[in-house]
Design goal:
- By secondary structure, the protein is of the alpha/beta class.
- It folds into two domains: 2-206 and 398-418, 3-Layer(aba) Sandwich (Rossmann fold), CATH 3.40.50.2000; 219-395, Glycogen Phosphorylase B (Rossmann fold).
- The protein contains 16 helices and 13 strands.
- The protein has helices at 19-33, 67-82, 89-110, 128-136, 148-155, 162-175, 184-192, 219-224, 248-255, 273-282, 300-304, 326-333, 344-349, 364-376, 378-395, 398-418; strands at 2-7, 37-42, 60-62, 117-121, 140-144, 178-181, 200-202, 232-236, 263-267, 289-293, 309-311, 338-341, 357-359.
- The strands form two sheets. A seven-stranded parallel sheet has the order 3-2-1-4-5-6-7, with helices on both faces. A six-stranded parallel sheet has the order 10-9-8-11-12-13, with helices on both faces.
- Helix 1 (19-33) crosses helix 16 and helix 3 (89-110) packs parallel to helix 4.
- It is globular, with a radius of gyration of 22 Å.
Length: 420
C-alpha cells in the first residue's frame, strides 16, 4: 500500500523530540516495517538548526510555506507589533495560507501517481490533506489526538478566528473516510461534530517493543547523570501544566524523610524548565534532582530503566481527561514500576496492583504513599514492572496500531473500488 502521511502542524518538527514528533515517526516506521511504501509530508523537520534530526527510514517531503504566505503573515505580524498589541491573527493567517500551499504542492507532486490513502494528523486549520485527498481520489484517514480548539483555548489562550477554526475542523473531520482517535473522550468529541460512530476508531498510543523493553541498567547512564545506586523516582515529558510536573518538588519533600538518598530524574525540556529548576533550588532540593533536558528519543529507554518508580503526575483537568499518555506506555515497555493517578485512559491501561499503583488525583499524600510503597517493596515493584511490560507488548504497540489502521484502510479502498 502507498501511504502519504501528512503532518501540516507548523509546530511539530517531524524529526524532532516533541511528543507529536515521536508519534508521527513511530507510526510511520510501523507502516514501513509492515512493508508499506510511505512518504511523509511536513513543513518542519527540526525545531532548531542545532537540533540533531532523528532518523526516519522513509522519504520526507518538506513542504515549506510559499514566499507569498511568508510575506503575508510577516506583514500582519509587523502591523500588530507596530501597534504594540498582542494578537493571534498572524499565526492564524499563516496556518490558513499554508494549508492552501500544502494542498497545491501535494496535488502537483502526486497527480501522476496518487497514494492509496492519505493519512493526516489533525491540526488547527489542517484542511490541506482533505483537499489533496479529494483531488487525488484517495481515502482520507484522519488522526485526532485531542480536541484541538479546546486545548488551544485552555492551555495556549488561543485568540483570533475561533469560529473559522471551528468551521475548518468540522469541515475536515466530516470529510474523512475514517477518523482515528486516541481515547474515548476524543471519540465523543469527534462524534459531537457530526461524524457517524461507525467511522470513528479508538487507537491509543503505543510503543516500539524492540526499543522500549526491559533490560539491565547501564553504568554509563548512571555515570552520565551522577547516579550511584540511590533509589530513583523518574519522570519523562514536557513542562506544560497538564503534565503535572509542579507536583514533583513537593513529592520529593515528602519522600526524603523516608528515603534520604532518593533522586528525582526529570527527562525532557520546555519553556517551564527554568521555573521548575528555580523551585527546586528555592526548596533546597537541587542535590537530589537531575534534569536531563532534551535527549534523543532513542536514549530515553536506558534512562527509564534506571527508574525505581516512574511517575505520571497528571492533575485532574477542568475538562475530560482526553490524553493517551505516551510516557505511560514507554514506562510499561521498560518494566518500570508506575505510580499514576486514576484518570481517564490511565485507569484503563494500568491495573491497580497488577501492572502499577494508582492513586486519587490531587491527593499529594496518596501520590507520595504510592511512591513510598514501591521504593520500600522492591519485590512488588519488580512484579508490577514485569507484568506491565508483558501487558503493553500484548496490547499497545505501534505495530499493532499500524496493522489495525491498515485493515481499516483496505476496507475503505475496497469500498471505493466497487462504488459506482
Amino acid at each position: 500500500m502507498k501511504i502519504l502521511y501528512v503532518c501540516s502542524d507548523l509546530g511539530i518538527p517531524v524529526l524532532g523530540n516533541r511528543g507529536g514528533s515521536i508519534h508521527v515517526r513511530s507510526l510511520v516506521s510501523a507502516f514501513a516495517r509492515a512493508g508499506h511504501s510511505v512518504i511523509v509530508a511536513s513543513p518542519l523537520l527540526t525545531k532548531s538548526s542545532w537540533e540533531r534530526p532523528a532518523r526516519l527510514e522513509v522519504p520526507v517531503l518538506r513542504v515549506e510555506p510559499s514566499s507569498a504566505t511568508d510575506s503575508a503573515w510577516r506583514s500582519v505580524d509587523a502591523f500588530v507589533a507596530a501597534l504594540g498589541a498582542t494578537s493571534a491573527v498572524p499565526d492564524e493567517l499563516r496556518r490558513i495560507l499554508y494549508n492552501h500551499d500544502l494542498a497545491e504542492a501535494l496535488r502537483r507532486t502526486f497527480r501522476d501517481e496518487a497514494p492509496d490513502i492519505i493519512y493526516e494528523r489533525c491540526a488547527i486549520y489542517g484542511t490541506g490533506g482533505a483537499v489533496a485527498a479529494e483531488a487525488l481520489g484517495a481515502p482520507l484517514l484522519l488522526e485526532v489526538n485531542a480536541p484541538l480548539l479546546v486545548e488551544d483555548r485552555i492551555y495556549r489562550r488561543g485568540q483570533g478566528a475561533g469560529e473559522l477554526a471551528a468551521a475548518a475542523e468540522r469541515w475536515t473531520i466530516t470529510r474523512a473516510a475514517a477518523v482515528l482517535v486516541v481515547s474515548a473522550p476524543v471519540r465523543e468529541y469527534v462524534v459531537s461534530l457530526g461524524v457517524a460512530e461507525e467511522r470513528v476508531h479508538t487507537v491509543p498510543n503505543g510503543i516500539d517493543a524492540e526499543v522500549f523493553r526491559p533490560g539491565p541498567r547501564a553504568p554509563a547512564v548512571r555515570a552520565r547523570w551522577g547516579l550511584n545506586g540511590e533509589p530513583v523516582v523518574g519522570f519523562v515529558g514536557g513542562y506544560q501544566p497538564w503534565h503535572g510536573i509542579d507536583a514533583l518538588p513537593a513529592l520529593l519533600e515528602r519522600l526524603l524523610p523516608r528515603h534520604p538518598d532518593v533522586r528525582l530524574v526529570v527527562v525532557g525540556d520546555g519553556r517551564g524548565r527554568r521555573e521548575f529548576e528555580r523551585q527546586v533550588e528555592a526548596r533546597g532540593l537541587a542535590a537530589h534532582v537531575r534534569v536531563t533536558g532534551a535527549v534523543p528519543h532513542e536514549d530515553v529507554p536506558a534512562l527509564i530503566r534506571e527508574f525505581d518508580v516512574a511517575v505520571a503526575p497528571y492533575p485532574p483537568p477542568d475538562h475530560d481527561f482526553y490524553f493517551s499518555p505516551l510516557k505511560l506506555f514507554e514506562y510499561m515497555g521498560c518494566a518500570a514500576a508506575i505510580a499514576a493517578p486514576r484518570l481517564g485512559q490511565i485507569e484503563e491501561v494500568v491495573r491497580h496492583g497488577d501492572t502499577g499503583l494508582l492513586y486519587a488525583p490531587s491527593d499529594p499524600k496518596a501520590f507520595a504513599d504510592a511512591c513510598d510503597r514501591l521504593l520500600s517493596d522492591r519485590a512488588l515493584a519488580r512484579r508490577l514492572g514485569v507484568a506491565a511490560a508483558a501487558d503493553v507488548r500484548a496490547k499497545y504497540t505501534w505495530d499493532r496500531n499500524a496493522a489495525r489502521i491498515t485493515r481499516i484502510a483496505e476496507t475503505l479502498i475496497g469500498k471505493r473500488a466497487v462504488a459506482p
